[in-house]
Design brief:
Elements lengths: L4 E3 L2 E3 L1 H16 L5 H16 L2 H11 L1 H4 L33 H9 L11 E4 L5 H13 L6 H18 L4
Antiparallel strand pairs: 1-2
Helix pairs in contact: 3-7, 5-7, 6-7
């Protein structure tokens, strides 16, 4: 083979030049991160947001305040259209002997423990939506085919919300 390019004291043949050009092109054009890396970075950001003090408040504002009101006293803008008034969420501990009823509220929000024989309509068998099912559906749409733990995501969202409600309690 004859040299394609002559450098001082060195000759580069065609095959070596093509290999160097291909390597340089791949380095420049290669993506800086894979889809998996981007997903894990996004999931890490979501996990950090879940543990922020404001995450429970954001959950409340976006999912609960329409019925329970921004002050959680049961006077939201939708409350007048419901057949049963939403409870004052600031008095939950007082009505339970001074102890915040974490387990009972978790089950009510998650909605998996509906009483036997109840008909789960679009809002469950009660006025309050089944947020656990809603969270699973939203997370499933967001993550699609990417592996994730739906129960852990739902648990994190509900526990953040409950932590926020616990801070609102009148003692």
């Amino acid at each position: 083979m004859r040299p394609l390019l002559r450098l001082p004291h060195r000759a580069v043949n065609t095959a070596a030049f093509a290999a160097l050009t291909a390597a340089a092109t791949l380095t420049v054009l290669a993506p800086t991160q894979t889809n998996a890396q981007a997903h894990f970075r996004e999931e890490s950001r979501l996990q950090q947001r879940i543990h922020e003090p404001g995450f429970g408040k954001r959950e409340f504002d976006s999912n609960c305040a329409a019925c329970h009101g921004m002050d959680a006293k049961g006077r939201g803008p939708v409350a007048g259209f419901l057949t049963k008034n939403p409870p004052d969420l600031t008095l939950l501990a007082r009505g339970n002997g001074g102890v915040f009823p974490m387990d009972r509220l978790y089950r009510a929000i998650d909605g998996r423990d509906l009483p036997e024989g109840s008909q789960a309509g679009p809002h469950g068998s009660r006025e309050m939506p089944i947020w656990g099912r809603d969270y699973r559906l939203r997370d499933g749409e967001y993550y699609g085919d990417t592996p994730y733990d739906p129960d852990a995501m739902v648990r994190g969202r509900i526990l953040s919300l409950l932590e926020y409600l616990n801070r609102l309690q009148v003692r």
